[in-house]
Recover the amino acids of this structure.
């Protein structure tokens, strides 16, 4: 046990229904408790499991006006429920001899496995790790007793803002260079805040602020990076690389002196580009799991990803020049991914519930792909991508286009509408002429 | 499961009933079949509940209701039939006479009219018979074990079919002239035509169930013989002892148990006995004492026989009038006023009335002396008690009094005495949780064990007892 536990509160949820559940949670170390279904049930939920269909017959989870009229829940129902929960907690605390709730937190020693409910399925369960009592270091605690000191002195944004003064105030291009370590988190976020404060979501012209970093970036490198900022990182990055990317450009490649094959090694952590809305990202190397989860507009080129790539993506374009993990495109309702499927195994890795796999044949797609791989080579100096371009005619047929089915329909409709609009525009022009 | 928003699109709709004046002239069933497309829509109303209360809480035999509702909606009638056959041996009976606790428990009954589950069940099985899908399912091999079942009501029939299909040799004994128990002799034809039973008997006979009618087990065959000849015995003779009215004048001519009246009427309808052999209500003022389903059957039968006037008295207070389509006690069975088809046909109903004595003329019933009662709930014990309201006495002229006051327990017959089974506190046969009585190898199921109850409970018990017996015979 380190001396970090005393700064945080632990929240637990899932199947919380009774005061006993809360007490067990507290003894295991939790301080906050989330009630979901049980609270809903007090307000009339009957676990129809139709929340996603808009047909909830008791009006709990629906936008249908007729059905919402059927909702009979009252805030008082939840209040009463919680009172009973609290009452039961109080009774159990009295039995256990606790006067204050916080005294109970982390007292794992008071829990034991109830052997009376042993069942053949439980035979292989080993609770010793769950019920282990950790040693508390001197001055430490098993519950939250102090506050996290948020030390912004480690943030490099203050220096970046200072260095980019000309750009911020007069839109003049600046070029900076900075070392970075993994304790430097959310690099570029406060800088982006300064930009959007002045120039709104449009930001600055492309590449107005260029920063070259060297080293190993901490979590959330380039998070919410605004338009007009280009970060180039020679080194590697942790999780949440490009989180919420908002128009900026991120380029990352291994140190020039490194000897490994980038396309086979992870260079960024998990959950890159989480919820990104705009911008471009070029990764010379592999990214971790859940690449581009919930991306809605950014363009990314990467040389390989882990499991659950493009999960819940709703927009943007992703080019993957190498391996993917399993469950690719799960819940992907929009955007397009282009995957280089050299050994033709991609269809076994892709979650085909919502997407179709197509060859890349349309001119529009081919152009997009080629242009962006060229940019990737230009920005990162990737030999691997360069080889692909060299044998382009051979490689192009090996690309697979991952196309969400409903997205495709929506795009088609949009096109038809645009055609109609332009036709009618011409017609009105004719009439007026 | 149906259509996800079918319940918003379609309204509950039941099969039309024949007009009262028409149906009073015969004993044929009251409802007309519904069109297939309408049934499809009714199936579409099912909401595919995450937690289907109809199936788990409503139906004692766990009918796979959401599954066959969905199949019916999609027009997959054969699939629906296969699902239905998995749990119910007599869907053509429950589809007609079950009070449908499933519909009371239907999730939609929280705030609107439930799915017409019973009607869908009936449509499925009638379609299956019409299409020739109901075929005998004889066992693949014989176990060589011999089982006797005493009493051929729904519990006995269900157990017989289940046990036979498991490969046991099954002999079903019935003391009456025909198989079916109360289904045949208790329930009037206007609710359940007897050809419906004959159809099922034919299937069971083809499967190899042996029917032995006119056999009073315990007399024709002694308990000793029964034990010797069979590896196991199942007692499903129902709760045959009716509750009696212990008042002066009970012995007068014209005072009958409901079951005597209904049995004779049913036998006359089937042509088994002559019209003049029944207890006739023709031209008479009839008083039915007891406000339950049996009483209601007496009302309907009396009216068909041409009674001058029919009254029905109940000792309990009038349940609350509930006109809304939803269930005020969801998912439980609501205690609300129910008006049966027989009541629609003409009947004066009254509640909270006790009978004090019956007086006669020339040995025949002439007047019934009643009084009104008040029910109060003990605040401590929660028990209800009844008190006569002073000065509320009144007299009703009646020529026929039918006692439909429920059943106390199984008849404590010679058979049961000779077998040596023990009774529980209520006088039912005591079983051990595995349907075995205190005598090894002698089992009990249905009303005999539970006390008088629904057909669907009898089926449930019959099926479970069959399973328990199979396990017993294999051990």
């Amino acid at each position: 046990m380190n001396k970090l536990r005393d700064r945080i509160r632990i929240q637990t949820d899932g199947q919380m229904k009774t005061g006993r559940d809360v007490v067990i949670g507290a003894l295991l170390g939790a301080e906050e408790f989330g009630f979901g279904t049980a609270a809903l049930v007090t307000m009339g939920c009957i676990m129809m499991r139709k929340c996603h269909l808009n047909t909830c017959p008791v009006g709990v989870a629906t936008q249908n006006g007729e059905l919402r009229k059927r909702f009979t829940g009252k805030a008082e129902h939840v209040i009463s429920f919680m009172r009973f929960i609290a009452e039961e907690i109080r009774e159990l605390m009295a039995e256990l001899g606790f006067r204050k709730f916080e005294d109970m937190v982390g007292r794992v020693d008071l829990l034991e496995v109830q052997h009376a409910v042993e069942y053949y399925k439980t035979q292989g369960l080993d609770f010793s790790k769950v019920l282990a009592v950790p040693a508390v270091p001197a001055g430490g605690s098993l519950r939250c007793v102090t506050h996290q000191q948020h030390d912004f002195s480690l943030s490099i944004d203050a220096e970046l803002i200072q260095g980019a003064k000309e750009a911020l105030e007069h839109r003049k291009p600046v070029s900076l260079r900075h070392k970075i370590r993994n304790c430097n988190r959310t690099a570029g976020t406060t800088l982006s805040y300064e930009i959007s404060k002045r120039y709104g979501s449009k930001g600055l012209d492309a590449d107005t602020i260029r920063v070259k970093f060297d080293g190993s970036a901490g979590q959330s490198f380039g998070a919410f990076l605004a338009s007009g900022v280009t970060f180039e990182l020679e080194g590697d990055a942790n999780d949440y690389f490009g989180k919420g990317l908002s128009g900026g450009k991120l380029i990352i490649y291994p140190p020039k002196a490194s000897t490994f094959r980038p396309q086979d090694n992870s260079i960024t952590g998990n959950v890159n580009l989480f919820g990104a809305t705009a911008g471009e990202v070029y990764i010379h190397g592999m990214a971790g799991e859940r690449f581009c989860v919930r991306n809605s507009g950014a363009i990314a080129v990467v040389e390989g990803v882990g499991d659950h790539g493009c999960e819940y993506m709703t927009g943007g374009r992703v080019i993957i020049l190498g391996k993917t993990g399993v469950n690719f495109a799960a819940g992907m309702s929009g955007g397009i991914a282009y995957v280089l499927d050299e050994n033709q195994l991609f269809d076994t890795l892709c979650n085909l519930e919502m997407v179709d796999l197509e060859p890349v044949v349309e001119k529009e797609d081919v152009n997009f792909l080629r242009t962006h791989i060229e940019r990737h080579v230009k920005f990162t100096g990737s030999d691997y991508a360069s080889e692909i371009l060299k044998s382009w005619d051979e490689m192009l047929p090996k690309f697979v286009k991952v196309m969400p089915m409903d997205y495709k329909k929506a795009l088609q409709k949009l096109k038809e509408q645009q055609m109609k609009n332009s036709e009618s525009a011409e017609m009105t022009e004719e009439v007026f002429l | 499961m149906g259509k996800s928003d079918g319940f918003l699109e379609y309204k509950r709709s039941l099969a039309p009933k024949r007009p009262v004046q028409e149906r009073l002239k015969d004993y044929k069933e009251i409802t007309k079949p519904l069109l297939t497309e309408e049934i499809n829509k009714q199936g579409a109303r099912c909401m595919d509940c995450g937690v289907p209360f109809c199936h788990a809480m409503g139906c004692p035999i766990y009918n796979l209701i959401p599954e066959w509702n969905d199949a019916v909606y999609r027009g997959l009638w054969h699939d629906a039939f296969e699902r239905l056959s998995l749990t119910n041996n007599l869907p053509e009976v429950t589809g007609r006479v079950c009070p449908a606790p499933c519909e009371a428990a239907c999730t939609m009954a929280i705030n609107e009219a439930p799915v017409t589950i019973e009607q869908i069940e009936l449509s499925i099985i009638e379609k299956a018979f019409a299409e020739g899908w109901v075929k005998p399912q004889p066992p693949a091999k014989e176990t060589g074990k011999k089982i006797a079942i005493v009493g051929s009501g729904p519990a006995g029939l269900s157990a017989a079919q289940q046990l036979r299909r498991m490969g046991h040799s099954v002999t079903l004994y019935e003391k009456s002239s025909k198989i079916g128990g109360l289904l045949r002799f208790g329930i009037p034809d206007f609710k359940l035509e007897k050809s419906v039973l004959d159809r099922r008997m034919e299937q069971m006979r083809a499967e190899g169930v042996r029917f032995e009618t006119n056999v009073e087990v315990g007399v024709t065959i002694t308990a000793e013989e029964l034990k010797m000849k069979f590896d196991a015995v199942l007692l499903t003779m129902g709760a045959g002892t009716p509750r009696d009215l212990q008042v002066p004048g009970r012995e007068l001519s014209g005072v009958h148990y409901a079951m005597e009246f209904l049995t004779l009427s049913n036998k006359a309808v089937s042509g088994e006995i002559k019209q003049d052999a029944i207890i006739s209500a023709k031209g008479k003022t009839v008083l039915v004492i007891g406000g339950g389903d049996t009483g209601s059957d007496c009302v309907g039968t009396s009216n068909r026989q041409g009674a001058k006037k029919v009254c029905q008295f109940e000792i309990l207070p009038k349940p609350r009038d509930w006109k809304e389509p939803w269930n005020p006690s969801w998912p439980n069975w609501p205690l609300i006023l129910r008006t049966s088809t027989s009541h629609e046909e003409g009947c004066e109903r009254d509640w909270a009335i006790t009978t004090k004595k019956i007086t006669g003329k020339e040995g025949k019933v002439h007047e019934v002396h009643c009084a009104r009662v008040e029910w109060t709930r003990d605040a401590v014990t929660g028990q209800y008690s009844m008190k006569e309201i002073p000065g509320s006495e009144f007299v009703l002229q009646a020529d026929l009094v039918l006692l439909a006051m429920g059943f106390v327990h199984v008849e404590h017959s010679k058979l049961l005495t000779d077998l040596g089974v023990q009774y529980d506190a209520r006088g039912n046969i005591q079983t051990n949780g595995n349907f075995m009585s205190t005598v090894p190898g002698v089992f009990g199921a249905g009303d005999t064990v539970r006390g008088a109850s629904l057909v669907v409970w009898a089926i449930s018990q019959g099926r479970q007892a069959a399973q328990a017996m199979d396990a017993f015979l294999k051990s």
